[in-house]
Write a structure and sequence with these properties.
CATH class: Mainly Beta
Strand content: 5-15%
Keywords: Dioxygenase, Oxidoreductase
Largest sheet: 7 strands, antiparallel
GO molecular function, one term: dioxygenase activity
Oligomer: single chain
Radius of gyration: 20 Å
Distance between the termini: 31 Å
Number of domains: 1
Cofactor: Fe cation
Protein name: Phytanoyl-CoA dioxygenase domain-containing protein 1 homolog
CATH topology: Jelly Rolls
Structural class: alpha+beta
CATH superfamily: q2cbj1_9rhob like domain
InterPro entries: Phytyl_CoA_dOase-like (IPR008775)
CATH architecture: Sandwich
């Protein structure tokens, strides 16, 4: 049960107008003249910019994603061994499989799924997937030939019936500073099994990006660190019809759901007994604001100006994104504790806090005016 406390309204919340960049999200760049593997059709590109998403059900062959599954298994095993060595658990559940082991660990040490989510480790299989040639060819269709990975990427540890891994309605821009509203940041949401309404697939509100604005969100939902986009904001501010515009995206294993950073979306509850693993990876133009300045920078991946460019993975991974987030939110102890089960970030300074819980305690009394980049757009 989340603690409740006084609301905390950002300075200028009532007076500040919405920043507006509709063309960023609705107008595609000049398309490549060369045919490349993985490129989307003209109709798929049109749908991405018109509706804010496009689902490609057969983008990968299942065997291409097997190394990613194997890497996730290794990460879970490494977490189990660390928790056992630290005396947090007595059973590592060594014989449990990919789709059940973390659930058992989370039962023994509540918050284990959050600890893994925070880890931020990029095994080679994750690096190979993020810089996959076919994915970068799609990104070129969305943002042009200069491509960098965004500092926010996630391994989603969606254990069954777990509030902390069920993300409510939001726009990705709500987690970023106001200065990145003019930067298109495409996401590839890649599940590691077939997804459906029962195990927590994604839903989007098609067309919710067209105004090019970030509607008002609130923080934090239940016992989580998530912001939420109220449905009346989706309807009244973004002009969507929730009866007709919600699309349930059941993505099969091997499929990819491409989203932009202004479309409202959420994940449904996982009501099965299997973990619904997925990765969300993001890209943008390397020279544009990423919205996470001062926390972690982008990682350049491809450049027409420098065809020999290779991602500097070691430099990128050397920066602890979640730790830096926590340090900015006065939680040095949490940043240093490898088993800390809380998450903080500067988005908590941007939106009205209507519900306090363990994740927000470190910012109680924080002077929001000290960080004007994170005031309401």
């Amino acid at each position: 049960m989340a603690d409740t406390g006084p609301t905390d309204t950002p300075q200028g919340k009532e007076a500040a107008p919405h920043a507006c960049c509709p063309e960023v999200y609705t107008k595609p760049p000049p398309q490549p003249t060369e045919k490349k593997p993985g490129q989307l059709s003209q109709e798929q590109v049109r749908q991405y910019f018109d509706e804010g998403y496009v689902l490609v059900k057969d983008f990968f062959k299942p065997d291409e994603l097997q190394p990613v599954r194997d890497a996730v298994e290794d990460l879970v095993d490494e977490l189990a061994q660390r928790m056992h060595k630290a005396g947090k658990i007595t059973d590592t559940h060594q014989d449990a499989g990919l789709f059940s082991r973390l659930t058992l660990l989370n039962n023994d040490f509540p918050g284990a799924a959050v600890v893994l989510h925070k880890k931020g480790t990029l095994p080679q299989a994750f690096r190979d997937l993020w810089s996959n040639e076919r994915l970068l060819n799609v990104m070129e269709q969305f943002i042009g030939p200069e491509i960098a990975g965004h500092p926010i990427w996630n391994l989603r540890t969606k254990t069954p019936r777990n509030e902390e891994v069920t993300v409510p309605w939001h726009q990705d821009n709500a987690y970023l500073s106001v200065h990145s509203i003019g930067t298109l940041q495409p996401t590839a949401w890649i599940p590691l099994l077939d997804t459906n309404k029962d195990n927590g697939c994604m839903q989007v509100v098609k067309g919710g990006h067209r105004k090019g604005i970030t509607a008002s969100h609130v923080c934090c939902v239940g016992g989580t660190w998530y912001v939420e986009l109220p449905e009346d904001e989706i309807q009244n501010t973004l002009g969507c019809d929730l009866k007709n515009d919600i699309v349930t995206c059941e993505v099969p294993y091997g499929g990819v759901l491409f989203l932009n950073n202004a479309i409202p979306h959420r994940s449904l509850e996982n009501n099965t007994d299997k973990i619904r693993w997925s990765l969300d990876l993001r890209w943008q133009h390397p020279d544009k604001p990423c919205g996470f300045e001062g926390i972690k920078d982008v990682i350049p991946m491809r450049s027409a100006k420098n065809p020999d460019l290779k991602p500097d993975w070691e430099k990128f991974e050397s920066v602890d994104r979640t730790g830096n987030q926590q340090r900015q939110m006065n939680n040095e102890a949490g940043a240093e504790d490898e088993f800390d089960t809380t998450i903080q970030g500067p988005w908590m300074l941007r939106w009205e806090i209507v519900n306090h819980n363990k994740h927000t305690r470190s910012i109680l009394g924080e002077d929001r005016s000290k960080n004007p980049n994170w005031t309401k757009a």
